[in-house]
Design goal:
Chain B: One of its GO terms (molecular function) is ATP binding. The complex is a heterodimer of chains A (272) and B (267). Chain A is mainly alpha-helical and 272 residues long. Helix content of chain A is 76%, strand content 0%. The chains are: A mainly alpha (272), B alpha/beta (267).
Chain lengths: 272, 267
């Protein structure tokens, strides 16, 4: 087998091997596959009907058609992107397979890249049907956002990977006892990311905190697009810059936690 | 890389370590207050089978984990196939492999899928052919398309061994390779390991509680107790030194602190 290596010895073959592993895993369990579709569909249906109700009774929301349902879809990209990353990682912990991987030629960066690809695949399985449901049930076409949607998507997925990398490092270091962080950390961001309301609603001091989070820029940008028909490229560039810093910081934290796990022998006992 | 920076300024391991499969030099591992491994040194020549013996908590698994790079030493150094671990692990991880009760093969994947994934990770040439060869050698054919989680303990051990051999490693680290196997399957696994070593001039380091297994397979035995090396020689020389006829008796002498008396009797 000819090994295709990129810079610094990153092997496409090894990344491909890991993606193949997660693909086999995904196909081996139809309940897990169904679950990928189930929650996003439930979200969009609930919030879609709420949006319809509010739009009929409030003139502002009638004007700002789609802000709620658009926010739900973008929030799901952020949340499911991180879950898609972290669940693939947790599968290795649950299967007690981490030792096999750490002893193989697989490098940490290759492992993380394969998890990123898997988060995209799992996201596509869950979110594409969700957007189609929004289109057919509520006549909200998220794809009509056009090129800005790509900017929104990229910024959200970069944030989700940063959070995914960081919490994976925490689980690696602390074992499955830290698993709950995987499921809950993103919800800590939720009120500050101003998904369903503008940043101006927050107290002045909290607004400073909110603006440190890339998703805040995306949701403000979405509202600007849907309500004022304005694409705020400045917001997207700011978010991209913070995301770049977050990705570097999370990768550094992952390597530090991996080293700490090696120091404390956590890789041998990856249970609770 | 060790926890202590000053370790890097230690004298280099002797030149012989470059030709050794494994060279361990003054290795120490401390977990909080516990010295799990306490200043051990040994060197294993290529093509040898060495048994690492000791009771629970003797430091065998920690030693093997440091050789693999899964655990960082507090001080001391490890060289594997001429490369320092874990700094130069990229140069050797593809040439070694391991099997341990502390890790599993993924349960929901079939045997073939698992071997395919690991074969790709190790960049095995002609992977389909290698899997077919292993399936034939290790008698996996009947269940190669069954999920790993649905196999018996003996079948799982053979699959784990197939994974450990997928890249035809020059160095094989085995932690309790026949634990929980019936005598027939255990004997079959030992025969396969002997054959693999002979055919490939591979080096094998195995930790085991099974003294008969060690007597049969190993041309050298390292006995550990409380993190230190208690004895290190051929099985025959050790049994003679302790005036015992089996390694099991030696093991009990060491475990129960009858070491000095037994050694004294041979003087």
């Amino acid at each position: 087998m000819t090994d295709i290596s990129l810079h610094h010895g990153i092997s496409v073959h090894r990344i491909g091997a890991m993606i193949l592993r997660y693909w086999y895993l995904l196909l081996s369990s139809w309940p897990r596959l169904l679950e990928l579709l189930y929650w996003p569909a439930l979200q969009v249906i609930t919030w879609g009907f709420l949006q319809l109700y509010i739009a009929e009774n409030a003139s502002f929301f009638a004007r700002a058609g789609g802000t709620l349902i658009g926010a739900v879809i973008l929030w799901d990209i952020l949340f499911r992107g991180q879950l898609g990353f972290s669940i693939s990682f947790l599968e290795e912990m649950w299967a007690r397979n981490l030792g096999n991987l750490m002893m193989s030629p697989l490098k940490p960066i290759e492992f993380l890249l394969s998890l990123m690809v898997m988060s995209l695949i799992r996201l596509a399985i869950g979110v594409i049907p969700m957007t189609l449901l929004a289109l057919f049930l509520f006549h909200f076409n998220v794809y009509a956002l056009g090129l800005p949607l790509i900017a929104f998507f990229c910024n959200l997925i970069f944030t989700s990977w940063s959070v995914g990398i960081f919490v994976s490092g925490l689980v690696l270091r602390n074992g499955l006892g830290a698993e709950s962080i995987v499921w809950t950390l993103m919800f800590a961001i939720m009120p500050l990311a101003c998904i369903y309301y503008p940043v101006s609603v927050l107290p002045a001091w909290l607004q400073y905190v909110a603006w440190t989070l890339p998703p805040t820029y995306v949701f403000e940008g979405m509202r600007a697009l849907l309500i004022e028909n304005t694409f705020r490229a400045d917001l997207m560039l700011d978010a991209l810059a913070i995301n770049a810093a977050l990705l570097v910081a999370s990768f550094g934290a992952f390597l530090a936690l991996l080293r700490s796990a090696r120091k404390h022998g956590s890789l041998l006992s990856s249970g609770e | 890389m060790t926890e202590n920076d000053d370790a890097s300024s230690r004298p280099t391991v002797a030149d012989r370590s470059l030709s050794a499969a494994i060279a361990v030099d003054h290795l120490v591992k401390v977990y909080k207050q516990t010295r799990a491994v306490d200043d051990i040194s040994f060197s294993l020549p290529r093509g040898s089978i060495t048994g690492l013996l000791g009771g629970n908590g003797a430091g065998k698994t920690t030693t093997i984990a440091m050789i693999m790079g899964l655990v960082l030493p507090t001080s001391g150094r490890v060289q594997v196939l001429g490369h320092r671990m874990p700094e130069e692990s990229a140069a050797v991880l593809g040439r070694m492999n391991f099997e341990s009760p502390y890790v599993d093969m993924p349960m929901r994947l079939t045997v073939r899928q698992n071997l395919t994934v690991f074969g790709r990770l190790y960049a095995v040439n002609n992977l389909a052919g290698r899997i077919a060869e292993l399936a034939d050698d290790l008698d996996l054919t009947d269940f190669i398309d069954r999920a790993n989680g649905k196999l018996s303990a003996g079948q799982k051990t053979r699959v784990a061994l197939a994974k450990a051999l997928i890249n035809q490693p020059e160095l094989l680290l085995l932690d309790e390779p026949t634990a929980s196997l019936d005598p027939d399957t255990a004997d079959w696994v030992r025969a396969h390991l002997e054959r693999y070593r002979r055919d490939n001039n591979a080096t094998i380091l195995l930790a085991s509680h099974n003294m008969l297994e060690v007597e049969r397979l190993c041309d050298r035995v390292i006995i550990m107790k409380r993190g230190r090396i208690e004895d290190d020689d051929t099985p025959e020389a050790i049994m003679a030194r302790y005036n015992r006829t089996t390694l099991e008796e030696v093991f009990l002498d060491v475990a129960r602190g009858r070491v000095n008396g037994a050694k004294e009797a041979t003087r």
